[in-house]
């Protein structure tokens, strides 16, 4: 029942294209100026800081094993990550996930009150860390993120948005002046379940992300 509900909230645009790169997406997109670098020491550092209390993925490899064998695995993994990044190909095992339903609130009998948590391979999570750092650095350097964007950024949250910006100042000034004040909050239902992957890729391409990372 939960599986049927989780699948029902996805729209047709959410599915990833069969090809590694959607047709026409990377036409005219710049090539990588320098090959993406996944250095052995950087991989080793990520492995050494893995949370050993996290659950393992479908491959059954526990993060504690990866952490304790960091010195032996770093070189081989850096080669695999480098080739994957340059070719735009992801191993099939890295696309598998164990989906666990977690109750958010409300009645336990209602499948709509659960959110799916995907437990993927620790190996793929390390690779994702590299890709995320490249994307975030590129978007920030290219001013793709506005200063007002606080959610989902390191050191910036919904709380910092209220405290650091002039919102808090304006609010207190209006209250001190005895003026009426209305605040409207919006919450997009199932926002992350219905995000179109193809639209995200086009957004990243418009920000000038290179071909290898897009693929």
UniProtKB/TrEMBL annotation:
Q: Which superkingdom is the protein from? A: Eukaryota
Region annotation Disordered: where it falls in the sequence: 95-114
The cross-references to InterPro entries, in alphabetical order and at most eight, read: DNA/RNA_pol_sf (IPR043502), RT_dom (IPR000477)
Q: Name one Pfam family in it.
A: RVT_1
Q: Which residues form the Reverse transcriptase domain?
A: 107-211
* Protein name in UniProt: Reverse transcriptase domain-containing protein
Q: Which organism is it from?
A: Hirundo rustica rustica
């Amino acid at each position: 029942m939960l599986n049927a509900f989780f699948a029902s909230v996805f729209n047709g645009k959410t599915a990833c294209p069969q090809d590694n790169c959607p047709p026409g997406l990377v036409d005219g997109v710049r090539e990588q100026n320098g090959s993406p670098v996944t250095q052995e020491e950087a991989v080793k550092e990520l492995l050494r800081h893995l949370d050993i209390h996290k659950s393992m993925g479908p491959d059954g490899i526990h993060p504690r094993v990866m952490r304790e064998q960091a010195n032996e695995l770093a070189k081989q993994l850096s080669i695999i990550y480098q080739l994957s990044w340059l070719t735009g190909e992801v191993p099939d095992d890295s696309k598998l996930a164990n989906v666990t339903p977690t109750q958010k609130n409300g009645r336990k009998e209602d499948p709509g009150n659960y959110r799916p948590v995907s437990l993927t391979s620790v190996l793929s999570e390390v690779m994702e860390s590299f890709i995320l750092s490249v994307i975030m650095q590129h978007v920030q350097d290219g001013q793709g993120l506005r200063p007002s964007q606080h959610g989902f950024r390191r050191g910036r949250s919904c709380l910092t948005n209220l405290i650091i910006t002039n919102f808090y100042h304006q609010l207190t000034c209006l209250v001190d002046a005895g003026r009426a004040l209305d605040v409207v909050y919006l919450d997009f239902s199932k926002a992350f379940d219905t995000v179109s992957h193809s639209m995200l890729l086009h957004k990243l391409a418009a920000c000038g992300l290179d071909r290898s990372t897009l693929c």
